[in-house]
Amino acid sequence: MNRWVRSIFLCLGSTLLLMNWSVAAEWETCSGIVPMQNRYDKISILDFGGVGDGRTLNTKAFEEAIFRIQHLKRRGGTLLYVPAGVYLTGPFNLTSRMTLYFACGAVIKATQDPSQWPLVNPLPSYGRGRERPGGSNVVIRYVTILAPADSPNTDGIDPDSSSHVCIEDSYISVGDDLVAVKSGWDQYGIAYGRPSHSITIRRITGSSPFAGIAVGSETSGGVVDVLAEHINLFNMGVGIHIKTNIGRGGMIRNITVSNVYMENTRTGIKIAGDVGDHPDEKFNPNALPVVKGIKMKDIWGVKVLQAGLIRGLKNSPFSGICLSNINLHGNNPGLRNSPWKCSDVSGAAIQVSPWPCAELTSSQQTGACSTYF
Ligand SMILES: *[C@@H]1O[C@H](CO)[C@@H](O)[C@H](O)[C@H]1NC(C)=O
Ligand SMILES: *[C@@H]1O[C@H](CO)[C@@H](O)[C@H](O)[C@H]1NC(C)=O
């Protein structure tokens, strides 16, 4: 392993790396999906007027540093170093071929002044303002992301119409989903047609009144080939939530979630086709999502009020749903938690407790685990 990369590990600082796929060198990888890259060009936020005193607004400093990276286009990209300190800031956009490197003790803190948060134009895949543009070839690791549990719409990380994204070794405690993979909203997302694929989410710990690992509910461009593993969740609304809706269209396929521990959770596993609203009334009610090939295995939960809920669509039943080695215990040892509820779904279940719904346990379905994987 390159010595420079090793020093990141030892420091336990935080990095956000934006890669250009074509120039990325073939060495150390995060997840084996996105090649890591050394950055010979390094700049510090202090050189752009950054002040880490917790009071000075640093939006301009970040914007100017990133503007320089974007326009100077140094060979091999640029690392932007943020030394220890608390940097108050409004929103800023990242760019390609950059590493945002937080030294140990470096915090970027969102300003509470609403005038610093202008509305951004809606993404073409959303129709109305909602999220920020997604980015492909992105590595996020060793970050801590915090927002108050009662702050609305504060997802931790949303890969949106993005591919080759790796999110590892991070702690996220927010007021909405910790990580949600998305790809556009109803007719806008269908027209835009850009899926999220090849997403790895690994060694994430956190808590939220909403979902831990989520897909959706905006999945109109499709979400395929997602792997989430080694996830620890505490005080959650829903542990794992795959969600879509009529009018979304899009395919959700080949999603694997494994090695999850959850504690004090309202619903352990939820896969549902009736979640989330619509951008406007012009959505096509015949644009039905397809949900196929979802594998969940090696999941352990304690104090889980409801083990699982799978609600497919009558005209587009969910298929190839495979559950194996899942134990979701209720609030009280000895007392059972609410049983699984399922409709319009087929698949298989092996060693699942509490015993899941009949739709998943009928014997002719046991091939489901191998069919889609
Ligand atoms: C950041 O990107 C958004 C969306 O493309 C854009 O509306 C906004 O103006 C950008 N902000 C800056 C500071 O460049
Ligand atoms: C499913 O997704 C994983 C990534 O999570 C990928 O490695 C694998 O090749 C995909 N399987 C199929 C059959 O596409």
TrEMBL record:
Please name the InterPro entries in this protein's record. GH28_Enzymes, Glyco_hydro_28, PbH1, Pectin_lyas_fold, Pectin_lyase_fold/virulence
Q: Which GO terms describe its molecular function?
A: polygalacturonase activity
The alphabetized UniProt keywords are: Glycosidase, Hydrolase, Signal
Keyword Signal (UniProt): yes
Q: Where is the signal peptide?
A: 1-25
GO biological process terms, alphabetically, are:
carbohydrate metabolic process
At the top level, the lineage of the source is Eukaryota
Keyword Heme in annotation: no
Please report which protein family the annotation says this sequence is part of. Answer: Belongs to the glycosyl hydrolase 28 family.
Q: What is this protein called?
A: Polygalacturonase
Record organism:
Anisodus tanguticus
Q: What is the lineage of its organism?
A: Eukaryota, Viridiplantae, Streptophyta, Embryophyta, Tracheophyta
